[in-house]
């Protein structure tokens, strides 16, 4: 009998823990089932381009250093939807058939996709089109993939944001300042709210809960009245202005990305709050670096389970972390859905209970 051949790719923005997941998939597939594992480079591009761009993994190529290594050794893309691929002349072209043909050319029998909600949606559509059996593994520092409590990368990003709070607190106190920390998270506030609670913030703003400038100013005045001469504030990049506009900056290639809400708020607060304010934008520091232990563990558990799903013929599923264990859910229940903070859930109530201003419902 010939060995089963499976492919694996990473798609969307990178994060810490991706290599740990790759390692786990390769170990389980080779050690337990004797399969061949092909790593596809640069997300879907590796199957769209000719010649195909891939590497065959063996156990030697996925040593324990993979646990410690940030980013993804396979490379990834977060633009270039194969159904609307951006061409050099600015037009969009449907290149989905190139992907399907590439899959057939490589002769693999199932695909493991490590991605966020957007990648799950696109890859799921691609796989449906090509009749490709797919299993998904959730990753994103934003932690917004539906049906899973944790996505790979979140724990590391949270540690980075928490450490930033620890570093900002003493300098805020020394200079009697209001420090605003702007964190990533796209349209959700998981990093912001968790880091705010863990880091002792006075104000946490997240896209899920509206705020007022008066509310923030009142909280800062309250802090001063309680005898503290500095305050810490965390704002999620996806928060809108109080009049409902997103704050974005144009990146190379004409791509708009969130960024700047911290500076915006600092300028607005200067009108009402007397204290000096400084802004720190954490940015991609949250995505890189050595993965947190939690991410390594989740990534390893996801990788092993994903291979077992393929072995059991359970396809079209995504592995998920629920109530302390790995389970699997239909990808169609996840694809393109964003898991937001529940404004009345445990974390929001905890923040309110601690006296943190998190906006007004
Ligand atoms: O989705 C992950 C994420 O890091 C978001 O938190 C952030 O808004 C975005 O990606 C940044 O994208 P890019 O790496 O393209 O600048």
Gyration radius from CA atoms, angstroms: 22 Å
Strand neighbour order, sheet with most strands: 3-2-1-6-7-14-15
Described by strand count, sense and barrel closure, the largest sheet is: 7 strands, mixed
Bound molecules: 6-O-phosphono-beta-D-fructofuranose
Catalytic activity: beta-D-fructose 6-phosphate + ATP = beta-D-fructose 1,6-bisphosphate + ADP + H(+)
GO cellular component, one term: 6-phosphofructokinase complex
Binding site for ATP: 13, 79-80, 116-119
Subcellular location: Cytoplasm
Plain-language structure description:
InterPro entries: ATP_PFK, ATP_PFK_prok-type, Phosphofructokinase_CS, Phosphofructokinase_dom, Phosphofructokinase_III, PKF_sf. It is an enzyme of class 2 (transferase). Catalyzes the phosphorylation of D-fructose 6-phosphate to fructose 1,6-bisphosphate by ATP, the first committing step of glycolysis. It comes from Paramagnetospirillum magneticum (strain ATCC 700264 / AMB-1) (Magnetospirillum magneticum). This protein is an alpha/beta fold. The protein has 2 domains: 191 residues, Rossmann fold (3-Layer(aba) Sandwich); 132 residues, Phosphofructokinase domain (Rossmann fold, 3-Layer(aba) Sandwich), CATH 3.40.50. The protein is 36% helix and 19% strand. It has 11 helices and 15 strands. It has a 7-stranded mixed beta sheet with strand order 3-2-1-6-7-14-15, with helices on both faces. It is elongated. The protein binds 6-O-phosphono-beta-D-fructofuranose.
């Amino acid at each position: 009998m010939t060995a089963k051949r499976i492919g694996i790719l990473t798609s969307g923005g990178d994060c810490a823990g991706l290599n740990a997941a790759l390692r786990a998939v390769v170990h389980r597939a080779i050690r337990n089932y004797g399969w061949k594992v092909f790593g596809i480079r640069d997300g879907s591009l590796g199957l769209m381009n000719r010649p195909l761009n891939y590497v065959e993994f063996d156990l030697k190529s996925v040593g324990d250093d993979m646990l410690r290594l940030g980013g993804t050794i396979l490379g990834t893309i977060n633009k270039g939807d194969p159904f609307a691929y951006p061409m050099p002349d600015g037009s969009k072209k449907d290149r989905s058939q190139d992907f399907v043909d590439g899959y057939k050319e490589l002769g693999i029998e199932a695909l493991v996709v490590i991605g966020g909600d957007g990648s799950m949606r696109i890859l799921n559509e691609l796989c449906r089109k090509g009749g490709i059996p797919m299993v998904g593994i959730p990753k994103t520092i934003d932690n917004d993939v539906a049906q899973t409590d944790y996505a790979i990368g979140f724990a590391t990003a949270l540690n980075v944001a928490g450490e930033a709070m620890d570093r900002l607190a003493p300098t805020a106190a020394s200079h009697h300042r209001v420090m605003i920390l702007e964190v990533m998270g796209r349209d959700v506030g998981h990093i912001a709210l968790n880091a705010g609670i863990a880091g002792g913030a006075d104000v946490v703003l997240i896209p899920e809960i509206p705020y007022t400038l008066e509310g923030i100013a009142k909280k800062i005045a309250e802090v001063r009245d309680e005898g503290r001469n500095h305050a810490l504030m965390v704002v999620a990049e996806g928060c809108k202005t109080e009049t409902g506009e997103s704050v974005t900056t144009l990146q190379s290639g004409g791509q708009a990305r969130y960024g700047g809400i911290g500076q915006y708020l600092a300028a607005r607060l200067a009108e009402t709050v007397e204290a000096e304010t400084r802004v720190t934008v954490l940015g991609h520091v949250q995505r890189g670096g050595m993965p947190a232990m939690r991410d390594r563990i989740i990534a390893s558990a996801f990788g092993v389970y994903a291979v077992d799903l393929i072995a059991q013929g359970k396809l079209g599923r995504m592995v998920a972390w629920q109530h302390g264990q790995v389970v699997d859910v239909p990808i169609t229940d996840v694809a393109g859905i964003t898991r937001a903070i529940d404004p009345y859930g445990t974390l929001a109530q905890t923040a309110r209970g601690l006296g943190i201003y998190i906006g007004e419902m």
